[in-house]
Every structure is written in structure tokens, then in C-alpha cells.
Task: structure prediction
Amino acid sequence: MRLHANQGGKTMLGGNFLGRAGASFAALIAVFVLFAASAAQAQQPIVIGASVSQTGPLAVDAAYHLRGLQLGVADANAHGGWLGRKIELKYYDDQSNPGTAVRLYTRLITEDNVNLVVGPYSSGISQAVAPLMNKYERVMPAPGASLPAIFAPGNKWNFQLLPPATGYLEGILPLAKSQGAHTVAILELQLGFTLACGQAREAQAQALGMPIIYGASYALPQPDFSSLALAIKNANPDVVVLCSYYPDAVGIAQALHRIGYAPRFLSETIGPAEAEFISALGPIANGIISNTSWWPNLKTPDNAGFIARYKAMFNNEEPDYHVAATYAAIQVLGAAVKATNSLDQAKMRQWLLTHEVETVEGVFKSDANGLSTKFGQYMFQIQNGKRFLIWPISQAEAKTQIPYTGQ
Amino acid sequence: MIILQLVVNGVLLGGTYILLAQGLNLIFGVMGIVNLAHGAIITLAGLFTFWFATKTHQSPLLLLPPVFIVMLVVGGVLQRLLLEPLARLGRRGELLNLMVTFGLSYVIIETGLNLFGSQYVSLPDLQTTWAVGGLAINEALVAAGVLGALISGGLHLWLHHTESGKALMATAQNPTGAVTCGIDVRRMRGIAFAIGSALAASAGVLLILVIPLSAPTADTLTILSFVIVALGGLGDYRGAVMAAIILGLVQSAVGYYLSGDAEVVVPYLLLIVFMVVRPQGLGRATR
Amino acid sequence: MNLDARRLGRWIERRLGNPTSAAAPVPAPGRERIAIAVLAVLVLCAAVAPLFATAYVLQLATDVLTFAALAYSWNIISGCTGYLSFGQVSFFGIGAYATSVLVLRAGLPWYVGALLGSGLAGLAAALLGTVMLRLRGIMFALGMLGLARILMVVAGNWDYIGAASGLTLPAELTPIAVYLATWVAVLAAFGLNAFILHSGWGLSVTGVRDDEVAAAAIGVPTARIKVITFVMSALAPAAVGGIVAWNRSFLDPPSAFDPTLDLQVIVFALFGGIGTLWGPALGTVILVFVGEQFWAYLPDLQLALYGVLVIAVVLAFPGGIVGIANRLGWLRRRPVLAPAVFPVVARLPRPALQGGETIIEVRDLIVRFGGLIALNGVSLSIRRGEMVSIIGANGAGKTTLFNAITGFVKPSGGGVFYQGKSVSDIPAFQRARQGIARTFQIPRLMESMTVWENTLLAARYGKRADQAVDQAAWALQTVKLDGLWLEPSTKLTPGQQRRLEMARALALDPTVILLDEVMAGMTRNEQGEIRAVLRQLRGFGIAGVAGVEHVISAIADISDRMIVLDRGSKIAEGPPDAVLRDPLVIESYLGKVS
Result:
């Protein structure tokens, strides 16, 4: 192979040795100077630091995450900022990579000396970054982390801004049972929060006396669901629950359709909330039930205003619950700053542990480990190419269409 | 009945694989150029088709002819610029080809990421599922398989029964000899890569109806295509078809009786096993 | 730059073609020592500086070192051995898990865990290597990629190591400990690279990369070497994997077997200079620093820029940064075991051996390639003290005969016997070591080595370093190539290349030499030079010589016996003048006279 250019004949550092050594030393110095040039910023405004997955597999979802931050900061500034100071958002791209995120947060905290931090998108990255917050003693609202394990007893500085994953789709089994359904199939991706979600649903099914007649748990992205779909068809469950991300939500729905099978209830996490879901599946999407922690018609303070301002800022698009979560994170930070009248992290942390904050996403209240306790869980169903809230029944916008037909 | 359905699923899956791998069989199997950008080309074409169909609400099949022609030209240009300089190195250049196409794949993937985002996309066309005697057969899968088989057959006929096709085979087997027969080998190399890329792009247009595609996972398609080409025997079309169907059947069965994860590793296990036990693949072509 | 492909191709050829001037003498050791000392001081400064900087700089430096360790390890198997691997992350993951489990469940200190994890990965590499390294080229690369995915599935389903939820690890390591530990890993990986690129043993590795077949023909145990370097390439990634897992306090299958790690490492090593000693370090340092500054401004183009960089490096400067530096006279590789001046070695001629004992015997040899019968029951023998010429029209099977004798082709029937014993179970490299040397019809020289190193590689087996040096020097003197000893082998004329092939055969200290068309394409003068060497061979203790030849005039008078093959069968045998007048022989060359 000729990718190398090895040549014999001269010593390692060549002829005029001192000249070359001098040049290399100078080069080393130059590099370090370049380095130092990325020093800390001026500090007059309050700076909120974050790492955002602008590239990599998480980029599309993280884009919403970022927009929520931007809107939150813009709104806070419109109201005069905090402590009389303007607020700035400083973020870097972690490329959907936990290791990079760790490095970026270290940089934000130790080099850029940001005043406050907000968590990254996704449980995986949040989990990697959590120990850092303990080390540097920084309050971090985590709007991308639904995995309860992140908020375990050892972790004192992270606050969950999403409902815990164990609550995702917690309404589907009671709802189905009330309509006479009995047997359940649970499919889960073995990754952090989807696993927690799947296990919680399994426990719930057992508690409700609904037998789980088929279960599948897989670790890798599945390019082909045809065998899985065939197995589900064979088992013929009343309710199918999928705990995974967007690709599987689309893949399973397609595969079930191709095998010519439609369970009475088809419920999937995350995927159906994305804008592309409906255009990707067309009529097959109709009847699919999914979960969300936020809804446009939710009666939370200034929800309508939040939606209007989002549309104005982002090309008339509708926000989703990711946006709501990060917006709520800014609201929570602002509340803590104003209440303690400082940027002191220990004080803010103490305050957050003992107080509630009303946000567009609902009521923020965390337990002693930072786990959120009062964010609501809602379910919606896709009907005729649009989404309608169907649960809790008290806030439902439309009747649940049963059975799922995929037409 | 389950077994029959598994067989149907497997064959249909194999049909998808045939479509996936054909362009690569020409470039790698016949010409020996390791085109790591194969999956990226398929994906970019598929993403573009998605964008077109959702914006204009026209049938994606309309894109097949223009995409094929555009990719013919683009493929020819890319080959001239990036691969032709390495062609004179013969055997030494094999790994350099690999690296160049490796770099190219990332350029294409980034283009896809920027233009179309990183999300999986798919199109809800050709969604009818026919119930035939208790078996479920999906329209999109059948279309993919039929098109794949047609392309396969067409390529085989062209390579073995036409003047230009045989000239191409000659160039692949012995460039110096081909030159002495008056064959313009430089043009042949350009044609092979152009057609191979055009086939990959066309495959992408159809595949978006069958499986979700996304820019970040383009390399999975590349690997899968290489496995099929290698299992079938480089350059052997019958072998590739056999390999694709066998792979589909094995995956279908493993996915049902074992687990989804086991199904995912089947191609890699098969590759390793085959390369050690029968390196020339399933087909009869010797190289 | 004109885009015409022909000119582009020539431009590239010039770059790949080692445009050095005449060989420079190997410099004095004193200067070398000063160079190494200054380098050590520089490295020490670079190592110590981040300890006094901010936490961010320390973290960044640790990341750079992590990548450097991975790049050096990738360099071992892909750069130095020539087996491009797209799945080295497999060992990273194995090390990460092994370390974590050993520390969590067995309560070992973490550095012990990392060392043991490293050992475990090495063991895994040894086992996997025997299977994987049989795959060539792209298949090996893909196989390794597949291996990484298979391991991810296994890890995701194995409860003892946390399955898909992964392992949470208590935060035990200080950043400084991590930094220093990573330095140890980098130095180890660097040391392995230095050993491969500068030692006599390492020359075998380069030989495997350049031409596995030729390497086997000069006694290099290629299969064993590949497995050893594969094991070497697994050690540092495993150690680093363990350190990173503990630094992050968390480990799960996707982070352990993350494929983007491989991509970055490959780009860094390629950019720096694949297969070189300084390439991986330079590539990693430059690209990580550049990356830190640029990705903030151009997040949307990162992957594309990596891709363009790879293309640019391959097409414009395949040697990477080090390749460019080489052309400026910097960072050039020192020829292995080359003394300061060419050693002049006197070798007493040994008495010519007389005839009798059979050295090589071929009995009813049949070789089939599919439907084609290349050798159809050929029997012949080469006896001590004689020189045999084997002639025949094209396609007669002459080279196939040599290939069968030396072990590069497996006979379908019959047998080959060396000094009375059958060699059918003995692999090619072993036959070379036992004394059967050969040259190739088209010279197969190691292209990245100098004339000296090509010869030294053949001389190494079974000798101490100084003996090998002497043997190599003598071989080069004999073929009169000592004046060009430090030239890159690619710069030789065809005649000189033939002579280098012969020098390699001589350096093996063989019992019998098989020469495959050694006169082809030589001028009269060159033929004369080779004939002079051939005449001396008996005085070197070489028991027998067999030569396949077309240029019959050049060998007829120095052969003791001539054998003629025609379409796989022996049709004549005897003293040259009798054979050359045999009507059957004439007919096989010229056709029937009707």
C-alpha cells in the first residue's frame, strides 16, 4: 500500500538541526497562543451556557430544543432581563456526542465563565454531563433528560424539566382497559429512557391485570421490522405499546401495515409528535396514539402568548414539547435568580428544591433528587392527518377513535 | 402459514437488497473500485425524492429518469476528477480508491444533512398490501424487488451479450489487453462508474418508498451492499441475486425465531464466515 | 492546476515516486543524541504545561492524547501492516468494559483494571486475528466494522456487564490522574510504532505490508506477524477505553463501541501521514486544535470538511503532513540497522561442491487450476553441485513448477521433496528459511524500503543483528549494488532490480536458489554481470541452482543440465547441446515442419 512516503537516508530531524528545532518550538508556541485567544468573554450580561446537538443524529430534535432556549432568552430580555441585566445565550455544537458535550460544558464553566447553564438534548448526553455539574456545583435544569436514573441520590445539582420517562404513555393501558381491551404487547428500545418507559408500562400492565402476550426488547436500530410485525400479528394483542424514537415509530407502523395487521390500540412514544411523522406515513398514521408533556391548548400561564411569539420568531411553525421544555427551563432559572436575587448557585439550588414554578409546560416541582413530580402527562391521537388531545379525558379535544385501522 | 409468510418476507427483503446492491456490483464487482460513497448516493437521491414529492405532491416515480441521467453525468465527472488519477496505479491504487470514496461519502452525507436534515424520512406511496391466500404482500416491496431484478437481468445481458458490455468486462479483467484491442479504457472506467452511480441513485428514488432513509445512517446501506456483492461473488449478477435472497430469508427467520438484534448482525456474521470459508462467494465467477 | 486526468496522474506519480536526491550518508550518532534530547525536553514541556492551565485546557489536552493513542494504534495495523481497519473501536469497547467490570466487581484499583483490560483485548485480538486477518483489503475493513457492531449487540444483551442500561461508575479519577494515565497509553503506543519502524523485527512488518508474497519468499512468517501487530494495535485503545469510561463515570454499549471514533482517528492518522512515526501525533494535534476553533463557526460543514480533507490528502499528498515534511528534508525515516558506512565484508570462497546427492526432487507433480492442467505429472531433480536450466515455450508451466516447489501453489497430485523429506505440509516462508530461495519473474521488491533494507530483511532469520548486517552487506557486494545501498528500491533500473532480487536470495544463505527468468529484459552487459554472479554461486556454498529461462543463449554454456517443458510435461532432459538439437524441443518452440 502506498499511502506512506517513507524514505531512508537522513536523520529524523534533517540537516540544519537547530534551525528546525527552533521552528518547531515556535510553532508550538503559536499554537498555544491561538489557544489562549479563545479566552473568557466580557461579563456584563448574564450568560447562559449550553451545549446543543447542531450536527449528528440528534440534530433535528435538538433544533427545537435550541429554539426554546432562544425564545426563552428573548422573552426574558423583553421583560427587562434579570437583576437589571440583559441575558445572553452562549452555545456550542456537541455533535450529538456525549464526550464532546462534557468537554464543552467544562469549557463553558471554566473558560467562558458563564453565569448559568442549561442542559443538553437527550438523556444520553444529559447523563454524561450530570457528574460535571456535581463537580463544579452548578445548577442545571435538564430539559432533555427524561431518564430517572440521572436524578439519583448522588446527583444534587440537576433538575428535571420533563416528566419522568416512567410516565410516558401511562394513560394508554387504563384507557384501553376501559374500552374492553385485555392483552398487551410491549416493544422497547434498550436505551436509557425508552427502557425505563418500557419497564414502567410492563409493571403497570401487571398491576392492571392485563397479560403481556408478546414482548420485544432490542438494542440496535432495526432496519427491518417485518419479522417483528409478523410475530405481533401472530400474538394478536389488543394493545401495542412502543417505547422508542422516531425511526422505529415509523418503521413499526409501516411493517404492521405491510403484514396486513392492525391492533385495536397502537401507541408509540416520541415519533408521532414530530412534524414529519404524518407526512411520512400518510393514512397509516391515523389512529396512532402518542404522549406529550405539553399541548397548545394546555391551560398553563401565557401558553397562547408563548405559541404566538414562537410562530412570530420561527416562520409561523408550531412549537412542540421540546420547545416547551427548554422554554420552561429558562423560566425556572429566571424564577430562581429573581427569588434569590443573585446568581449564587447554592442559593438557587436550595430555592429550587423547595419551591414550585409555573411554566408553559405546567408546574415545575422537583423532589429531593431533582426528579420532576408535577409535570403532566398527556396523550394525543392522530385523526385525519391532525393531532388531537384525547387524555386526560377531562381535557380531551376529541373522542378517541377505536379501533386503530391505519386508514 | 407463518413459515410461508416468513419466506415471502425474506424474498421481498432480498428484493430490496438486490436493488440496493446493483450499482455497486458494477463498480466494485466488475471494476474493482471500492466505492464507499455508494450508500451516500442512494440516500441523497432518496432524500431528494422525499423533498420533491412532499413539495410538489407528484408521484416520486417521475423522478426516475431525470435522476438517472443527472447522476450519469455527475458520476462521470466525479470519476474523472477523483478516481481516474488513481487508475494508473493498478493494484497499489485499490486502497487509495477506498480512501477517496470514503472522503466523498462524507461530503455527500453532509450535503444531505444540510439540505434535508438528519431525520429519517419515508414516503407513503405504494402502500397497498395485497392479501393473497392468507399471505400479506406489500406493493412497495414488490416494486423494489421487480425493479431490482430487472436491473440485474439488464446488466447481466448488457455485460455478457453486447459489444460495449464485453468491452467493459475486458477493461476490468485486463486493462492493458483491452487497450491493445482498441478499447478506450479511460472511457470505459468513466462509463462504469457513471452507470453504477446512476443505478445507485435510481435505487434511492425507489427505496424511499420501501424503507426510511436518513443522512447519518447512509453508511449502513454501503456496508450492506458490500456484503451482498461479496457474498454473491464480485461481479456475478446471478450470485448477487442469490446472495440477496438468501440474506433476506436468513434475516427474516432469525428475526422471528431469535431477536431483532440477532437479525441485525446476520450480514456481518455471514460475511466473516463466508470470506473465511468460501472467499469467491456463492456465484461461479472466478477472479 | 490543469484538471486533465493524464497530467493529474503524472503529477501524482511524481509525488508518490519518492523524489529524493542521491542517498545521503547516515549521520553521526552524536547529532542524533542531541536531537533526541531536545525532542524529549519539548515533549516534557508540552506534557507538563496543561497541568498548570485551566480545567478546560487539561480536558482538551486529555482528549488530544486519547485520540493520539487511538491514532497510533490504528497506525500499527493499518499503516504499518497495511490492513486497513474500520473497527478498532472494538478494542476500545472491550477495554472499557473489562476495566469497568474488574474495578466494580472485583474491586481492583483502576490502573490495574486498565492494564488487565488491555491484556484481555490483546487476547481477544489474538483469537480474532487468526480469523479476520485471512480477509484481504476491503473485506477485512468491513469485517472489522461488522465485528464492532456484533460486540455492541453482545454487550447490550449481557446482564453481567449492565446490558443496555450500562454501568454507572463512581467518580474516582481526578483529571490529572486521567491526563497522566493517557500519557502513559500514548507513550506505549508510540513506543510500539517506533519499535516497528526502527527495529529489525519491524522490518518484517513493513515487508508484509509492501508485498506479502515476496515477504514469505524471503522467510517472513506473514501470518504470525499479522496477528502480533493486530494484538499490538489492540492494547492502547483498550487501556484508553478503560480510562475514558471512568472519566465519564458512565459506560453503555453505544458509547463503548461508538463508530464515529474510528472515523476521526482515521482522518487524523491519514492527515498526519499514515505508516509514519510522527504522522499520527501531528495529525491529531493539528486537527483537534483546528477543529476546536473552526467547528464553532462552521458546524454545518464539519463532516464535509473531513471528507474533503481525506480526498485532498489522498490525491495531493498521500504521505500526509509527514510526507510534505519529508520533501523539505524533515522527519525522514532512518534506514533500519544501517551502519554509518557500508561495511565491506570479505567472504572466503568455499570449495565447489561436486555432484551426487539430490537436493530437490519433484515426483509426478500435477497442478490444476480449475479445468486447466498446468503441470501434468512432471518429475525432475536438482542435484548437489549442479546448475539446471529449465526452458520451454510460454505456458509450459515453468513458473508454476517453481511456485509449487517454493510453496506458493498447492499441487493437485504428486510430491515435492527437499533433501529427501516431503515439503507438502511446510508453508512457503518455512521452505525459504530451510534454504529454498527464489526470485520472481517480475521483481517483487519492497517499495517503501531502501536497497539495504530489502536485503537485510532476507538476511535476518536465524542470525544476530551483526551477523545479519554482514550477510546483507556481502550479498549487496556480490551483486555490485553496494554503491546504491541507501537508495529507495523504487529508483532502481530494471537491471538493478533484478540484481537486488538476487541479493535477497543470496542474503537468505540458501542451499538452493531458483531463478525465474533472471535474464529477461537485460542488456548484454547486464547479462554478463549476472552470469558472473551465477558462476560464483557454487563458491558460496550454494548447493544447487535452477533457472527458468527464455534467453537461452545466456545460460546454455553455464548450465550443467537442461530440462525442457512443453504444455505441462517434460519432453527432454540432458546436456544443453544435446537438448537444444532435439527435434521435439525445436518443434515445441517453432512448430512442426511439415
Notes: Chain C touches chain B through 46 residues (CB under 8 Å). Residues 222-248 of chain C form the longest helix (27 residues).
